[in-house]
């Protein structure tokens, strides 16, 4: 069994269409796949081919904890849940307001209104910072995507807008109402000390969160051990995923990450 429980398609900021993503997962030997697009379940259309992989319905929801942007993955969710549908509607509205705010902030730096071009780039997918980054590259304002984030869109920069997201308890509540498992995504990406991370995990657990990504993409053994220890300390299940966005991107390919430590209880124990 090889489970990749954090991936993205063109329904949000990934490069592969959902069917292509599934095909690549099969090629890479993935047996259990969750497509966890940002604030949408649009990847799970009626004609989505399953092939030889077991699909686990998922989503990645944006929230804010103490003014810090945090992502919560929902796994094994009911795609027809009315509570989740309402949550997605709220998040999509927040994304539109956020895109407008990012555009206004970038315009104050001397960039012509980027919103029309960014909207065209996103097409039917949800607008995110990657679309703004690509636009900045396209107009020659930055060298590459990395520079776009470093100068304009990364944490603490002009285009880093967080205030529109729902609260952590709300987001976890939508996932639980949909019968899913709420997972704290890539816990080391938030730049927190171990003390602050424990405080985040305390609030996450109290809100009904049930799992943590012990393995997220490419990380060192020491980090995995620390996260495995936190999972046991807070009585949380352990999840894993590549956080795949595109082939030959800065991250890792589908299924290309270390296995969960044996002392962890895998998130899929309840439903695989």
Question: What structural class results from the helix and strand content?
Answer: alpha/beta
Quaternary form = single chain
Strand order of the largest sheet: 4-5-6-7-8
What's the alpha carbon Rg, rounded to whole Å? 18 Å
Q: Strand share of the residues?
A: 15-25%
Q: Report the span from N to C terminus.
A: 10 Å
User: What's the helical proportion of residues?
Assistant: 25-40%
The major beta sheet can be summarized as:
5 strands, mixed
Low-confidence stretches: none
H/E series: EHEEEEHHHHHEHEHE
A few lines on this structure:
By secondary structure, the chain is α/β, with parallel strands linked by helices.
What does this structure look like?
With 272 residues, this protein is an alpha/beta fold. The chain is 37% helix and 15% strand. The protein contains eight helices and eight strands; from the N terminus they run E-H-E-E-E-E-H-H-H-H-H-E-H-E-H-E. The strands form two sheets. Strands 4-5-6-7-8 form a five-stranded mixed beta sheet. The longest helix is centred in the middle third of the chain and has 27 residues, at 82-108. The N and C termini lie close together (10 Å). The relative contact order is 0.17.
Topology of this protein?
Blueprint: E1 3-7, H1 18-27, E2 32-35, E3 54-55, E4 58-65, E5 68-75, H2 82-108, H3 115-122, H4 129-138, H5 145-153, H6 168-177, E6 181-184, H7 194-206, E7 211-216, H8 221-233, E8 237-241
Parallel strand pairs: 1-2, 2-3, 6-7, 7-8
Antiparallel strand pairs: 4-5, 5-6
């Amino acid at each position: 069994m090889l489970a990749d429980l954090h991936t993205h398609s063109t329904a949000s900021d990934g490069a592969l269409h959902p069917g292509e993503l599934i095909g690549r997962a099969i090629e890479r030997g993935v047996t259990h796949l969750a497509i966890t697009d940002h604030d949408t379940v649009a990847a799970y259309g009626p004609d989505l081919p399953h092939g030889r992989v077991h699909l686990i319905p998922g989503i990645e929801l944006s929230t804010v904890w103490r003014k810090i942007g945090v992502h919560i993955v929902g796994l094994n969710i009911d795609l027809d849940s009315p509570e989740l549908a309402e949550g997605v509607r709220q998040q999509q509205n927040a994304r539109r307001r956020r895109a407008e705010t990012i555009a206004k902030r970038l315009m104050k730096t001397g960039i012509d209104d980027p919103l029309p071009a960014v909207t065209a780039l996103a097409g039917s997918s949800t607008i995110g910072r990657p679309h703004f980054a690509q636009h900045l590259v396209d107009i020659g304002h930055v060298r590459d995507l990395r520079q776009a984030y470093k100068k304009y869109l990364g944490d603490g920069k002009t285009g880093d807008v967080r205030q529109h997201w729902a609260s952590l308890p709300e987001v976890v509540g939508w996932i639980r109402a949909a019968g899913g498992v709420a997972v704290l995504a890539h816990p080391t990406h938030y730049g927190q000390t171990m003390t602050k991370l424990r405080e985040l995990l305390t609030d996450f657990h109290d809100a009904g969160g049930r799992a943590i990504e012990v393995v997220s993409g490419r990380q060192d053994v020491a980090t995995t051990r620390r996260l495995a220890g936190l999972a046991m300390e807070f009585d949380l299940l352990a999840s894993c995923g590549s956080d795949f966005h595109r082939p030959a991107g800065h991250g890792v390919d589908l299924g290309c990450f270390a296995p969960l430590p044996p002392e962890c209880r895998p998130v899929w124990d309840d439903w695989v």
